Q: What sequence folds into this?
């Protein structure tokens, strides 16, 4: 327990002393001293005892990790601990300090009501301490989760930007290699290639900052790129496009086709007698790029940027997988066609801000509930004392205690799962299940 906790207990002792001394005792130094002694004893014994129990449970059974177990142990420890602590304080008060009762009388029915009343007061105070501990733990956990999610989103965004930044030099390097070979083979074709390359590179610059593009845009770009390749390879390469029209308004990762077409050319030889045939078609929400396998010998190890780039970018955007199929006759890559734009990297920061706002709202609800609980634990004992002192035969304190208690229970149900928050959780569970079914290959 921290020093601040003991200072709080001192203030509670002083406040209790002044309250009972000013309103219920004769104004003498002896009464003030006795009241201060008893208030300090009750405050420190009950406060330190409950504090030690709470600290022990926090270490062994944290709220964030074992909520149900902790709740059960808190209830048991509150009841048993306060039963023992209250009997000890009352025994010290009536038998040892004031000496108004013997041990036999103290444990008889005569002091049963007094002990029962003090136990209930102690239980209310202890419930407040455990509730405060729960609220502090919840705030720490919520803040930690929000920070972790923001760090994940920031890291993913940086990774995605890094992957996209690979495309510019990669495309430019390979295009310049093609142009270099054309200059020697066919200078006239090299000029056409340069003009086509400028158009294609414009598309690269336009799409590099986008995470997804329509299949239609990607197909149109791929056809232009294929014309550029035909400029160099002529009849050694053939391209077949057979993409369903209904897939045109769906989405793929930008420049994925260009990287895969480039991959086909890079790893296969193509001649007029043995042309390389590349097919681009759609199949069951997948965009497929297939070529007849005519593997060439690799003079040097490939950097592996193209295919790895596509796989990593899809991994950051969706749980759907990129599939690679290889046989003796063909090589095929299948990339997912996304029906809707997912909650991608660019919107994750907004999503995390939304999560943070929800967390703040949740903490506000909990603070409201525990404020209600604290008020109940403070006001009801005061009303009980006033009632027992002014009119012990007319126990009217039951009415506010029961009425307010029912309202407090209703508030607890709303905050902890039987109100709107319960509905929200159920709606989200249904939405998550539906999303799982829609996504298919997870």
A:
């Amino acid at each position: 327990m921290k020093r601040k906790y003991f200072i709080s207990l001192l203030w509670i002792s002083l406040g209790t002393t002044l309250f009972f001394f000013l309103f219920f005792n004769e104004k003498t130094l002896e009464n003030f001293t006795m009241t201060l002694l008893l208030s300090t004893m009750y405050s420190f014994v009950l406060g330190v005892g409950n504090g030690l129990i709470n600290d022990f449970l926090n270490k062994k059974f944290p709220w964030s990790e074992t909520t149900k177990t902790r709740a059960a142990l808190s209830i048991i420890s509150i009841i048993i601990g306060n039963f023992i602590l209250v009997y000890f304080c009352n025994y010290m008060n009536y038998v040892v300090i004031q000496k108004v009762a013997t041990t036999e009388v103290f444990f008889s029915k005569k002091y049963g009501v007094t002990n029962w009343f003090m136990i209930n007061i102690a239980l209310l105070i202890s419930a407040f301490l455990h509730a405060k501990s729960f609220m502090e733990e919840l705030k720490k956990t919520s803040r930690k989760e929000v920070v972790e999610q923001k760090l994940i989103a920031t890291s993913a965004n940086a990774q995605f930007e890094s992957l996209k930044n690979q495309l510019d030099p990669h495309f430019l390097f390979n295009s310049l290699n093609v142009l270099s070979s054309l200059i020697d083979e066919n200078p006239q074709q090299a000029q056409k290639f340069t003009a086509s390359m400028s158009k294609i590179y414009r598309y690269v610059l336009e799409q590099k900052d986008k995470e997804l593009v329509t299949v239609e845009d990607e197909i149109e770009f791929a056809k232009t790129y294929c014309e550029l390749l035909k400029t160099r390879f002529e009849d050694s390469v053939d391209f077949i496009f057979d993409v369903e029209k209904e897939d045109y308004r769906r989405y793929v990762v930008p420049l994925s086709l260009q990287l895969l077409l480039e991959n086909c050319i890079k790893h296969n030889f193509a001649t007029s007698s043995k042309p390389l045939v590349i097919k681009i078609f759609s199949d069951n929400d997948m965009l497929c790029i297939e070529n007849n396998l005519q593997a060439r010998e690799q003079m040097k190890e490939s950097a592996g940027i193209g295919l790895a780039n596509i796989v990593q970018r899809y991994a950051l955007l969706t749980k759907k997988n990129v599939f690679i199929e290889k046989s003796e006759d063909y090589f095929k890559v299948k990339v997912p066609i996304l029906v809707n734009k997912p909650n991608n990297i660019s919107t994750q920061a907004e999503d995390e801000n939304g999560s943070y706002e929800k967390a703040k709202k949740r903490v506000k609800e909990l603070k409201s509930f525990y404020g209600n609980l604290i008020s109940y634990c403070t006001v009801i004992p005061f009303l009980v004392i006033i009632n027992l002192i002014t009119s012990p035969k007319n126990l009217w304190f039951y009415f506010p205690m029961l009425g307010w208690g029912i309202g407090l229970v209703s508030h607890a149900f709303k905050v902890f799962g039987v109100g709107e928050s319960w509905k929200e959780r159920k709606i989200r569970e249904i939405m998550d299940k539906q999303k799982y079914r829609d996504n298919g290959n997870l």
In short: Confidence is low (pLDDT under 50) at residues 344-350, 418-423. The first helix runs from residue 3 to 24. The radius of gyration is 38 Å.
